[in-house]
Amino acid sequence: xxxxxxxxxxxxxxxxxxxxxxxxxxxxxxxxxxxxxxxxxxxxxxxxxxxxxxxxxxxxxxxxxxxxxxxxxxxxxxxxxxxxxxxxxxxxxxxxxxxxxxxxxxxxxxxxx
Amino acid sequence: xxxxxxxxxxxxxxxxxxxxxxxxxxxxxxxxxxxxxxxxxxxxxxxxxxxxxxxxxxxxxxxxxxxxxxxxxxxxxxxxxxxxxxxxxxxxxxxxxxxxxxxxxxxxxxx
Lengths: 113, 111
Hints:
The complex is a heterodimer of chains A (113) and B (111). Chain A has 113 residues and is an all-beta fold. Chain A has no helices and twelve strands. Chain B is mostly beta strands. Helix content of chain B is 0%, strand content 58%. Chain B has strands at residues 4-6, 10-13, 19-21, 23-25, 31-38, 42-51, 54-57, 64-70, 73-78, 87-94, 100-102, 106-110. In chain B, strands 2, 5, 6, 7, 10, 11 and 12 form a seven-stranded mixed sheet that branches. At the A-B interface, β6, β10 and β11 of A face β5, β6, β10 and β11 of B.
């Protein structure tokens, strides 16, 4: 069965420093992978996706993610963090058979001034 | 922009009540989903629907049912609300891209 794991409950980073939010996946076929962000009292917003092609995927708000097949990882990255990036981040995988999205437990990113 | 609208932001219901959570999307998406979000557990899929009148159980369907009579509307029903159903409920629809679009969420408290 498809699944994703986010090993860190919280990531703290200083403003201006690079950030990484980790995600590993387990799929039986080709992975369809996603990152979503949730700001306080809001629904989730799509950031980026990997379907096929380049391993480095660029998304909204300056975020990017690196797909690594050998390590079964899809880490979210940003070269220079902003305080406004502080939010809850979810990694997700799509089940090929049913189209349903399976989410990780989320990682809270805190960017300090 | 795609809009997914959930009928209520906050609800307080009594134990044993029948509760309806409504979700409407305006982009003619075939797939719609209901999730509940709890701290430390992430999003868990309750039910999803890939067409009108079609529904599939997700990971935690017990105590819930759904209705999809029209393509744009997907309703979640708590047959007899219990305190362990106090949670944030999120509705989503997805396009063929694929991307999912989420509503603002309904925070339900069962007392």
